[in-house]
Amino acid sequence: MRCTLGVDIGTSSSKGVLVTDDGKILASATRAHEVDRPHTGWVEMDGRVWWDEFVAITRELLAAEPAAQIVGVGVSGMGPCILLADEHDEPVRSAILYGVDTRATAQVTRMTAELGEDEITRIGGSVLTSQAGGPKISWVAEEEPEVWARAARLFMPASWLVRHLTGAYVLDHQSASQVSPLYDIEHERWHDPWWQRYAASIEQPPLAWADEIAGTVTAEAAAATGLPVGTPVITGTIDAWTEAVSVGAHGDGDLMLMYGTTMFLIATGTETLRTASMWTTAGAFAGSRNLAGGLSTSGALTAWLKDLTGDDYPHLLAEAAQSGPGARGLLMLPYFAGERTPIQDPDARGVIAGLTLQHGRGDLYRAALEATALGVRHNVDTMRAAGARIDRIVAVGGGTQGRLWLQVVSDVTGLVQEVPEKTIGASYGAAFLAATAVAPDTAPRIEDWNPIAETITPDPGLAAGYDTLFDRYLRLYAGTADVVHELAADQRGA
User: Fold this and answer.
1) What is the CB-side half-sphere exposure of residue 192 using CA atoms within 13 A?
2) For residue 173, what pLDDT is reported?
3) Were both Cys, which of 41, 152, 166, 358 would link to 87 (CB 3.0–4.6 Å)?
4) What is the pTM of this model?
5) CB 309, CB 368: distance < 8 Å
6) Architecture label for domain 248-422+459-494
């Protein structure tokens, strides 16, 4: 039985699937993990965990289906992350994670002043923000010189797995385009002048596209994982882009909406669109471009409320449904971990407005769901204002299992969402990419692997009320930003 194996390294867990060549999931496995938050604004993870969990997941999947013939391996992972390793591929420090890690604000400011915002945008596509990899590399060089002196190579989760599986040192174009400002998006290559200025001691990873074969499983990797020697391994990419692949939301005019620990949006086209409020990146495939955005919290916010109240999701969802649209006069800003797009404000913080003694946890939970939906609306409006064509929206991720959250997002945004049959996410997309890479002449179609199962349509009767709430959402941020920024400074000092 011919199968591909896909593994994704996520923020809160690693997931793997074993998939037949017609898209059936034979087995799945998960390993939960936590990120480290040693200081306010820092979010890290020990990169060695990524390979350890890949090995454990792969062995579990192979044991579940001993008759499976593995013909290809797909990998993906959270990003952009900055994992620096020495010449022997030993990490020199924990990986610095994507935009939720906001430590490099001084480097963002300095590099922008040195290079010029217009020139940064012309070369790399996007202004520098907490999402950009370049300032985080500079942070290590400036703040941890002893660590920097040992750094020789740059990895992200997918490329770390590829290195261990095949020995290849490679990074995909999509991931590289988020190591701003070190990548030239128009010429699809590293921008040597700025690489030499900010990362000269780091060996440049050769570049490939996500669906290209990076190499084959070595004897050493086979002994560790149980995979056959010589099995092809794709280059892979960042998990959000692989999730878009998993549901077929990577065509011109598609928008992928990923419900996870954070919320992520990817609009796909062929034109390089530039706006200071969003991220312009290379796509997963040659010739494609993306305008992307992300909320710093979504599932993380609802999980916080669950832990705070000591109840479970089914009860909280039931109470949120009972609360009804508008959460009985509550309005929440979901910026509990700062915010990425479109406000690009690492010092933003959560705000709950309108609280009275009559409000309960169901109202708070409803307000949290509506807050993430209002954040999605803000992002979509900003994408469209920048010229993005959005014809079709596909929802993916663990949050799609809750119908109320999906309905709230459609009601608040006025958007129709398509929900595919399988929403397991990036690991499934990685397995699909591996299947297409090893059989290019008879490559499967994702529409056959994962057809649309449900469509969520907005309630037009709620549009006016949510229009008013969205206006208040924008004004609440503007009206509280000064005080919130002062509080954020106090938190850093503490």
Assistant:
1) 2
2) 98
3) 152
4) 0.88
5) no
6) 2-Layer Sandwich (3.30)
